[in-house]
Amino acid sequence: MCFKKVFLTMTSITDADNIIIQGTTIEKYLSIPLQTWYKSGGYCGSISASYIFKFYDQVVHDNYVATDMQNNTENCFIDLMIHYCDTDGTLGSTTTELQYGMTSYLIDIGIGNSAYSKSYFDFSTFKSQINKNRPLSVTIGPNDPTYGYHWITGHGYYQDANNIDAYIIINDGWGRNNVWIESNRNTLDDMVYLED
Questions:
Q1: Digits of tens for pLDDT over the chain (196 positions)?
Q2: CATH topology for 35-153+170-195?
Q3: Fewer CB in 10 Å around end: N or C, the chain?
């Protein structure tokens, strides 16, 4: 079960039986926290993929991370993801590399699932994945003042009752969970996620 906080905003009370509710504020997270692994060197896409597969292994089915990888250090699994997701010889993963690499990994371990991508950020898709208790990778564009070009991993969202304030809650790929970023941040870019 996903963790979900619901806050009601009351705009007026006319009597004990007549309450007008303006809306619902939602703060929702995945059922368990993501890993906080980190490996320096510009491997944020591979790190994000490793978080997603480890989550699926713990929550969906225990065959998403090979048994021989279960007891190895985090860097062993990140290194495996680098093999799949950083394949063009340049530093970092493109959206195509991440999607293709994640799908190739799934094929190689015998799981009938695939990675999908969107070439833009869509808050509705983001919320839908979290509502299904599924993490997803999101790129932040190169002009972002905090991250530059970087992959992050979504594990929650917040939306206030009036749809004025909305945030994605992420693992920043640098070992930190529960980082809040405005959902309308103009540097949010592509998305890669699994459908099952």
A1: 344 444 443 333 333 443 333 468 899 999 999 999 899 989 999 999 999 999 999 999 989 997 777 666 778 899 999 999 998 777 889 999 999 999 999 999 999 999 999 999 999 999 999 999 999 999 999 899 999 999 999 999 999 887 789 999 999 999 899 999 999 999 999 999 998 7
A2: Cathepsin B; Chain A (3.90.70)
A3: N
Q: What is the 3-state secondary structure (H, E, C) of the chain?
A: CCEEEEEEEEEEEEECCEEEEEEEEEEEECCCCCCCCCCCCCCHHHHHHHHHHHHHHHHCCCCCCCHHHHCCCHHHHHHHHHHHHCCCCCCCCCHHHHHHHHHHHHHHCCCCCEEEEECCCCHHHHHHHHHCCCCEEEEECCCCCCCCCEEEEEEEEEECCCCCCEEEEEECCCCCCCEEEECCCCCEEEEEEEEC
Q: Per-domain residue ranges for the chain?
A: 35-153+170-195
